[in-house]
Amino acid sequence: MRSAPAVQVVVGDDLGWRIAAAVSCAAAAAVLAAWLGLMAELPVLVVAVMAGMAGLAGAGLSHRLLPAPAGVLAWDGAEWHWGGSNGQVAVVIDLGPWILLHFMPSGRRGGRAAHLPVSRAGARAGWHGLRTAVYSRRPEPRTPSALRM
């Protein structure tokens, strides 16, 4: 069985990723501040102001807390490569023109796992190849017994 053809995609600072991270951090901070304010039985207006300020702070910190990774994600027909490591890629979220991938390094050299946001606009010509490689069946590992047949 043939695997997907080799493809390389430059992963960079993606506006969609920045917005999603900012909204997520803002919502988490606002909900936590509101919960704490309500548990302390503060007036509702004070709780609303606390939640708003915490939400703004969370959105502002999101760039530092959840930076978008930058580099080249490559599929060579057998393995994924990211940041000098080989590994596996899994789809976390697929919204059509935007996809969030999770890279999991393998082997002893290891490396770090990473969430990689990729958009159609950012991937340009590599978009179709990336989606093909991500959703294709993986090639069977070549074992010594399989080589004898």
Automatic annotation (TrEMBL):
Q: Where are the transmembrane segments?
A: 15-38, 45-66, 86-104
Record keywords, A-Z: Membrane, Transmembrane, Transmembrane helix
Q: Which domain of life is it from?
A: Bacteria
Q: What is this protein called?
A: Uncharacterized protein
- Organism per entry: Aquincola tertiaricarbonis
